[in-house]
UniProtKB/TrEMBL annotation, chains A, B, C, D, E, F:
GO molecular function: hydrolase activity; metal ion binding
InterPro entries xrefs: Creatininase-like_sf, Creatininase/forma_Hydrolase
Family matches, as Gene3D superfamilies: Creatininase
Cofactor: Zn(2+)
Protein name (record): Creatininase family protein
SUPFAM superfamilies membership: Creatininase
Keywords tagged on the record: Hydrolase, Metal-binding, Zinc
Superkingdom assignment: Archaea
Length: 257, 257, 257, 257, 257, 257
């Protein structure tokens, strides 16, 4: 949307019965020694652009920062408090609803970790703007099947900076991936209820991540980048785009009735 | 804890290496014509008492209100904003951490719906009190397997006021269940990405509930109370208590090291 | 209200011209070695139930926590900030006003100490909901005469955990009172303007309580439990209930005109 | 303090063991057709100056605005929300405590009505600055006896803009008093629990004032200015000053020990 | 306005098509060893009274405190946070707009330093009250030419407590000026982009002031009081009053159309 | 910084005595029919990248949104409240100061309009992080001379979307400029104190912009794009980069001492 004039946006809204806009949000945070800080924002941005192009919808500029306090032990991580993320999204949603966007879909690149903030903001926006529909697309929620199908590692290998995110970056930003730095890092939880599996549910107690530090010997990521491949990344990307486009089509069809 | 003196609590903390306290939180909100407004708080309270007794830990008095704006169309629903729930829990956690409780476990009876608020509060508390461990027990997260195993209905039958919550109340508060008012209510989402399945993950887009009203013909609940039975309720209760007690034992064992 | 369905509440509101609801709020805080932490909440809860039954009005579930920072030196005390109490009550009031309750009466068991927060919340609610009437019942305000009449001790004997609260608990929850731990504790203020008399006014400078600690030799309460008796407790309870019921009757009569 | 340099204040603090500062706060709000909007601030200011001179302590510049939403129906009333008053006082207290003032005494001219805000701010400041002592002087709290002794009218005659405040203004700012506009205005509450008596306690339910408007025929004040006299005003002023000075002397004596 | 009754204000508003009110805001903060803490508030107050009298408009009572954290190292400075200033002004503006003031002009005596807070508050008030016009008069913005014309010192001589403010106080409050304490104090910035010139623009990087302390040898002011004269002060005062009166006349003329 | 790993950032901080980081912030808002919504963010981003490369410092990812409520009448404008901008910058500054960046320079592309928010945030950050230096670079503040020198239009021609911003976009993003839509738009203020001159100071009253709407015939921009040229844009860009690099060099030199 940053490259359109206000008249272009005006035209788009007039031309569509239920205008749709995407809001990509990521995070700037450590992803181990092999991936750049911007991984989560790149994912949000890439997915939003792919979806927007395929579904012919608009997308706002990206939000590069998210809720990442537990990564602040590592230099370069920039974290917003949950309240700030909620305030930021609320203002963005208010602006978009004011202009008549009836479908406002947030694309979350900070997989799962931004969800409490985004769920809070969309819940409040739904109360404030009953004429607009709010939804959240998270690769680890809309792409459960594809992640399950493609994985070569175990549950814990696909976590932060592991098999899945490395694959995505190899597919979309190979020049930013340092393959020589690939190391498997996993940390067994103390309990069988501490799930490392973000794409399936089993008996789980939820517990916030604690702040690790490089001084304690941690590399930052949790997972196995050596299980990654560009091909997996492409397939994840394609599936998430495809699923979201299907969702938008079903959404628009339901609103026509 | 409300029945103990401060000296009793003092003694408990001194007697235990890693003292544990439970914080039950529910909601006061409509649960259809067959269940009382207090279902979620009763669940939190019953579970907390069961766990506390079995594991020999303390429990705070219950929080009867939660984040329930989408139910406000129905009389009797009392909703706190997400910010208020976060502020409330934050103050409770701060008090408990000050007294030296090293393990503070929130028991959520407002299944899944209170999670964004509780996750936000525990995340911030973890940053503020690194010497304390925070965890969240939600029946639909720690009891995934038992819910799966017991269900007779489909995914949507187990939602708000449906098969599972009705079973729980039949087991624990049968005098508050109006069996004559049992009606199956399900509302198909517009999309295959709109999951009704709270205890399993499939490709899903997250979208906040909108506020329904009785004037539109809704009864309030979503699910099938006719699939409920006291026996299922007992089994769910027993399993959640048992799992949580196991979790606490593993937690304390890990902290002894 | 927690034991009613939404249809029960709906019916109550429809059946009454000026529907009334009570909101009991207490505190979980130290009350010396002889009384449990829940004294203030038990008082709010007991009074609300007594009033509701006699006047045929509804009552919400209780709020167990209040503004008790000055007691945080004693284990088990859980304190909300004044802002949190205001936010919590505001959300509860908003929900109740939305459902059409025209009279919303807060029953304060944390005698006097919660008043700044409740006065702030009711003042703001009065501005926000001019169609609803807000009122606060505090035993030490609506029961001035009965407290004066019954007292055997001096002014300072009836303060926190002293003659009056111990009597109340002896009457209503005798199993929670440790009579063997009864000790008179009084602390003379430095000035004749420092009133210990909560039920009469004399020349006074207001000054917030400071945080005492058991390490300094304090037992926590201020007053004389040995002056307490179950009979006094019954009379206080009966009078506060009776006065409040009279108030509600006068209120409803004034609204009929 | 506004007429001193920072070096003067520095000297004062160095010269005193337990330096004392007064913070006068009033309100700018309607006081009927016979008194100016500034009555409450003039009272705070006059009293603070009198006390400061007699006790040789400092006073900050006055705060002219208070919590007066219920008077906003009348032109010229300027009201701060309770939160704003708390924030304002908190910042002032923080600054003063930082400079080493060990006794910070707020002089409230907006009799009783500002108390919830000031009590909240002093309570929080006491927690934040345990090395400083906070106190509140309100003419209707520190001058209970003198008001009782001097009154010619009944309880309701001494309320907002009535016998007492008119006397004060006649004594201190006679040029601002319009004696020709003196009218007795009293509004019986609906209930015997609705106290009009601000200087004595009887069985009372607390209930926030609702917003009256001139369009409804109200003159704004509640009380009887015809019962006022400059002499009463002088006596009230003298007594409040004298009592406060005594309080300060006792306070300083207690801190010397 | 503090000396008017509500009926006086009511009359003023009725008598004028586009009623105007001034809101003077200053600061209580160190101004070196030669000027009192109240300089900024005296300027706001004096200017507001002069403008009000000449233009026949109303003025609210003054706000004596502003955003002065960087002066807190010096005793006697009282600082509000930016948020508190915004909240305070917002409440004042809301009250005034409610009464029908169509032009609300803030007179800032805390030259330039209060502007971010006032700009934020007027911006939000403009959104909230589109029927009212908000403006800010700051001597260093509306009196650029007169300051330029009168100055004898260089750019840095006219800063905090220097040539201009000392002149103003000599003209209006000579009894509060300690001429024997006049000392020139200037601190060269590290960079040519660090402007000391508040009344002209050149290539500049904006950078917040840091907190200086007397312990480090600072006297507090920055500028040259020896360049001050009562005559300059009178001319500055006259010009700012005159310019503001002209502005108000043009404003009212534009609103008549 | 988004393309670096945390180890890269760690290395940069270790290698530099006084590490420097830039924070580019813009706005997404209407800029007339000839310029895209992203103009302000592109300016911030382009300048930050140019400065970072020349001065060998780091830059965070850009913030695409700013304080733009007065443009919300035009579709596509996305506005954050001033509070949200302050919260967002505060969190970013806190993260950067935590990692040891001693110089944190915000590059503002939303010329002048974002300044109250950025000034507030940098002021608070200076208090919170005295070990870090905060500064703000705004093209219309650090580039006063170059703007003056290059201008062909009058003062009002260079405002929002006019001569200067159009030149910048022609130089850096010519494909986003619609030259066929160039129209001169100027709106005379009602008063000679209403300055249109953002790069020089004359006697001025500050007054927030009001919300215009296309329905009222406005095109959105204020200024004269026909006076723009790519060459002017290049010169402005070069000068702002050069000035900022000089500033950074002087800053680092001053910190070495």
């Amino acid at each position: 949307m940053q490259d359109l004039t206000w008249q272009d946006v005006d035209q788009y809204i007039e031309d569509h019965d239920s205008p749709v806009v995407l809001v990509p949000i990521g995070s700037t945070e450590q992803h181990g020694p092999h991936l750049p800080l911007g991984v989560d924002a790149y994912q949000a941005l890439d997915l939003a652009e792919g979806i927007a192009e395929t579904a012919n919808v608009l997308t706002t500029p990206p939000i590069w920062f998210g809720d990442a306090a537990h990564h602040l032990g590592f230099p370069g991580t920039i974290s917003l408090s949950t309240e700030t993320v909620v305030a930021l999204l609320t203002d963005v949603y208010d602006s978009l609803a004011l202009h008549g966007f009836e479908n406002i879909i947030t694309i979350n690149g900070h997989r799962v970790a931004n969800l409490p903030a985004i769920e809070t903001a969309t819940k409040q926006a739904t109360e404030a703007h009953p004429e607009s529909h709010f939804a959240i697309v998270d690769p680890l929620r809309i792409g459960v099947q594809v992640h399950e199908r493609l994985r070569d590692g175990g549950a814990e290998d696909g976590m932060h900076g592991g098999e899945f995110e490395t694959s995505f970056m190899q597919a979309k930003h190979p020049e930013l991936v340092k393959e020589k730095a690939f190391v498997r890092e996993t940390h067994k939880g103390f309990s069988r209820f501490h799930s490392n599996n973000l794409i399936d549910l089993d008996d789980t107690v939820l517990s916030p991540s604690t702040r690790r530090r490089p001084e304690e010997g941690y590399l930052g990521h949790v997972g196995d980048p050596t299980k990654a491949s560009p091909k997996k990344g492409e397939q994840i990307y394609d599936t998430v785009v495809e699923n979201t486009v299907t969702y938008i089509e079903e959404l628009l069809a339901s609103q026509e009735g």
